[in-house]
Amino acid sequence: MRIKKWLVLFLAVMVVGSVLSACGSGNTKNGGNAAVNETGSEKGSKEPLTLTFFDKNTGDKFSNEVAAEITKRTGITVEIQQPTGNPAEKLNLMLASDDLPDIILFERSSDLVNKYIESGAIIPLNDLIESHGPDVSEMYGDVLNKTRYKDGKNYYLSNWYGFESEPVFGFNIRKDIMKELAPDKAEGGVPFTASEFKKLLQDFKAKYPMMDGKETIALSMDGENFGGSLGTFKGMFGMMPFFEDNGNLQFDVKDPKYRDMILYMNDLYRSGLLDKEWAINKKQVWEQKLATGTVLSTTGAYWDAGGANTILKKDRGEESQLFPYKVVADGVDPAKTTYGGRSSLGWDAITITKKNKNPERTMEFMNFLASEEGQYLLMWGIEGKHWDMKDGKHTPRPEVLQGFKDDWNAYTKETGIRKWTWFIKNGKGSDGMPYDLAGRYERGAVDQMALKNMSDSVYDSVLYDGLGPQGGTPEALNEQKVNDIVKQALTKAIMAKTAEEASSIFDKMLSDMKAAGDEKVEAIYTSNYKNRVELWK
Q1: Is the pTM value of this prediction over 0.90?
Q2: Confidence class of residue 24 from pLDDT cuts 50, 70 and 90?
Q3: Least crowded by CB within 10 Å, which of 134, 301, 312, 374?
């Protein structure tokens, strides 16, 4: 009996010891909270893992200071796949061959996203977000509701999401000459009327027919950026991406104000104020013209003239740069001008493919980068090296700000700050500091003028994004034909010899559009638009 009692006691001690040993092991490895994923790895694990990532925006290696810090905090190393050639062609080839990386970053408005969803090449993220993405849920909020596919599921996380009143288009004009010819408008805050803008162009040509031995140009445009050029003029007339008529969407040229816009542009052309070579200006040629200082103004996003402005500032001084100003068409409320839309749902879509063998770890990686901590790491760099926390606020070190001023691209590549712009949220963090250090912390004189003159002209374009027919369908071909007709006709109308000829060309364009099946395309625009509105309720 005594031997039997000792045997029982010995076994009991062994069992208790085994349990304590197991608990001790768990505490050592993961703080006593080791939860196992379906793939067998622990939740929150930092075990080394390499994920392949096709990012259409960059092919640079994941090998700088910020990249190393991301790997340190997550255990994840990213193998960037070089998007050689056209990214869309590469993505189509990857889908056809079923040769997929772990993560893909698409253009969000591209039809490729839908193709990948419908083929099952990328997986829904809802369950992963619920179980492994608390920061994703908090940061994205209602954006997740609006990025759902028609089946109600989320297949991607947006990039550069969240609406901000950051200006886009404007009439970019040399401020130094403005101070001579329109001093009451030079410092901004007071828009031009259409007639005042034309008079400014006329006064410039009268006073400066030649500069540095070259003929001057009152208004130039980048012929390769047709959307930006026409979009600037659309802004002064307050037009949207589509013309909405009783709940139905039509091509924007059917807005009654569009004809007025073309006639105004034609008037500028016939008056010798619009660059006679605007339609054939290649981007590089256009930039060279601006940089000579012989051009008073141009259209497009205010940052499009950045390269030329750098040269103008160096050669002629800061106020010789092209600053963005607002022009308002007759009968339009200045506050209802539409100088460019910004989508609150962002530019890119980041997805997990079906070939990814570690979706849980991947979502944990995404969750960290999407968190406020991850945002500041991606966009500001490493605390104690690139920035410090002072008085409760993120404070960049002077050498970091100087690095971006000296050579933005080289500094980004060297440090990794703002190189990996994944899951980026627009706006400011909880301490009031912007997530985008390089782009939003210190604003130059041109940026400040854009904010002053154009911020109230920005609209959220999210309802109108990606409403077109699916690629490869008959309606997609109709849409392409219509767009070609519109571009060719508008170009001719702007350069017509008389206003009557311009109006006649416009009429024929509308007739040709109808023959090309524009109403079939508009039916799809309207259907997709109404479905989106319903889905977001």
Answers
A1: no
A2: very low
A3: 134
